[in-house]
Amino acid sequence: MPSVNDRVTGPLLQVHGAGRDFAARGWGSSGVFRAVDAVSLEVRRGETLGIVGESGSGKSTLGRMIAGLLAPTRGQVLLDGQDVHGGSGARKRAVWRRMQMVFQDPYSSLNPRMTVRDALLEPMRNFGVAQGQAAQDRARRLLDACGLPARSLDLYPREFSGGQRQRIGIARALAVQPDLIVADEPVSALDVSVQAQVINLMMDLQAEFQLTYVFIAHDLAVVRQIADRVGVMHKGCMVELAASEALFAAPEHAYTKTLLASSPMADPARARLQLAGDPA
Amino acid sequence: MTAVNASHAKPWPVWRALNPSGRTGLLLLLAAVLLCTVVAGMLQHSPSTMSEALREPPGATHWLGTDDLGRDVLARVAHGGQISLMVGTFSALIAVLIGVAVGAACGYLGGTFDAVVMRVTEAFQIIPRFFLALIVVALVGSGIWKIILVLGLLSWPATARVVRAQVMVLRREEFVLAAIMGGASTLRVIGRHILPNVAPIIAVSASLQAGSAILLESFISFLGLGDVAHPSWGLLLQQGQLFIRDGWWISTFPGLALSLTILGLNLLGDGIRAAHGDSASTS
Amino acid sequence: MMDLHTVLDVDDLHIDIATPGGRTFSALQGVSLQIRAGEIVGVVGESGSGKSLLAKSVMRLLPAAARVARGRIRLGAQDLLTLDAAAMRRLRGGDLSMVFQDPMTSLNPVLRVGAQLSEAIELHQPVARRTAWAKARELLARVGIANPAERARQYPHEFSGGMRQRAMIAMGIANTPRLLIADEPTTALDVTVQLQILRLLRALNQDSKTAVLFITHNMGVVASLCDRVAVMYSGRIVEEGPVDAIFSAPRHPYTWALLNAVPRLDFPRGERLAAIPGQAPDLAAPPAGCRFAPRCSHATDQCRTQEPTRVATDEFHSVACWVRPDLQEKTHAVGQ
Question: What is the pTM of this model?
Fold first, then answer.
């Protein structure tokens, strides 16, 4: 629903025809592997854009291009009108002041040799967001907002479970008060009984801190819960992009339909029907 | 079962973290250090005092016997150890400092820099260290510090390769990406995030480098190019070789000390690798 | 009381694990499970539930630190825990076989797929090499791999993930096992491929009446494939019964959580998800009483002090819970 405000302020994130190729190396093979073909999308302030796809769809590569970690081979990524790539180191850092990332693997997204306190304080110091006592207070408040006790500050990551580590990763991403958070499969590596906690947390934080999310996942049910709009990736192309409800109720693209039809459902009657379906 | 692994903690369980062979290595090393420091200071005899008790076998007055100039063998072994250990320590230090700097830079920066520097590293590795060391020492002289410098400068490639490999893996880790996005400068990323996680590998390399430097220096000394003013175990071996038949103790004890110390360093290195190999792969 | 058609009978199994620190903790406690001929039984649980350990103990492939403290495992009439190594080897790959999770690492990368399959056949059947290869090609066809003759001569890296898993299943059924154990065989696969593999397993089960023990953390997969399901939490089976009964009327709060405290495509999209607090307990320092009690909204004092025993609520359905609340009404996305 476009409004006057949207046209005045513009979308927070714009991606114009972004694509990424990799040199295909291998035994006697040469040429180019097109991980992402040419994707265009927009994300408005305060909304959540979900990106779903299976392995090899390019969704993670797209996520890294959006986050500024991987330069696109073609096309552009604009954060509030500013090109995310192709700038000096200082420009890149200015971008990251406003855009952070939450990673997939809770066991490798935290430095095992840094306390939680240091992990939270470092970006604050690097960006000059807060110093000294103010920074310490901010760290405590962030942990609290993420459902962790203050005593976590002096512990090392190994003392925490997967779900707790993910919360720490989210707190770290919030440390610099970003506008946009790119979440690359943030709950995929968690136990199912913990996934709902983290999804709820992210939704609460979005409201509390006026965040905008790009939420990448392979699990359709997860994306449907949190996303306002959803883009479906298949072999490097975005084959469909629609409002969440519309996409799930009435998918248009054949691949989206296949994806929906193959997703497991915890309803025995429907699940057995799904299994009986067309022979593979 | 992740909570169970919390015992991979820090304190003094360097001991607890090591497997039996690693502990043996640590003990051997500590024994050598003790011998060359504490014991050396407490000895009755001095290493350079000549006496009339020529080539006396191990006995009551001279526990490990005397050499052909009447000098106490135990004292000579203890003081010779100071030299050998010093060689090991400082050569390893030089090799590790250069190796870490080169390895971290290559691993992190990649690209042309990495390609060029690695070719230089390989060039160093192709030349047999031992012969090059001999030639250099023959040219510049046998001062102990010159030997230490030469050994260090010839040994850094091994450390550089190993550090580079680990840095290349770590720079793709998510926590490193997070640090980069958190505004950390390249130097800070390498120093604060990557290298602390390479530390166990560096420790292993340092241990092995020390052992190898001690061994190399003893070869150099054995061939007569050692520093006579600072006799190391290798030099004692060289001096004792003439008397193998009727003065076996003159070379045996230095040889034993040498072997056990190098063995200790190697076992310790393997032990550290085993202890951290596990915690690196699990979480 | 052994049913003649019982293929697998796990009776009161307890497994202890020794930690590097020297202590021992209990990873499986009093696990009892029966599988009848032709049944597909699902074991569902999260990390630390012990489901994989259960599978490995049936195959006697436990890690060195694990030890069977108590209990019995019978395959048909044979007591698996008392068999010697040679007898166990004869069983594995023959009457009893297993399919693992990671198709990338379960196949030997330097051997052709056909060679691995025919080796599995030759180890258990008295046939010549040529016959074994022919059977290998047949098996590849049976699991739905096109051009089996050509594919048999290829190496694993030339197969896609789904095809590798099919090849693993082919190895699993090569010697018509009485029981096939599948340990999260589709977890690492895309959903579209997963559906194909599940269909394959269902077809194989229907054709040859092979019993299947299917380990997973995904309730949707259980719903489509399994006849019965056992829900595991922190080393114990907390609920067990026919899939229809368990899914429509769970009696254990953890089962309810697995069904309702997760995002579901077939539920209306609510404001928030019903989420259970906390996480699974540390196996080395479990809470007193029911291990789920700290996270359970129905927990009573008895729950916090006494471990519940498994009780039959009707002929086929059993639950380990003092409260056994009536959780039939599904609450979708409750606002907190």
Answer: 0.88
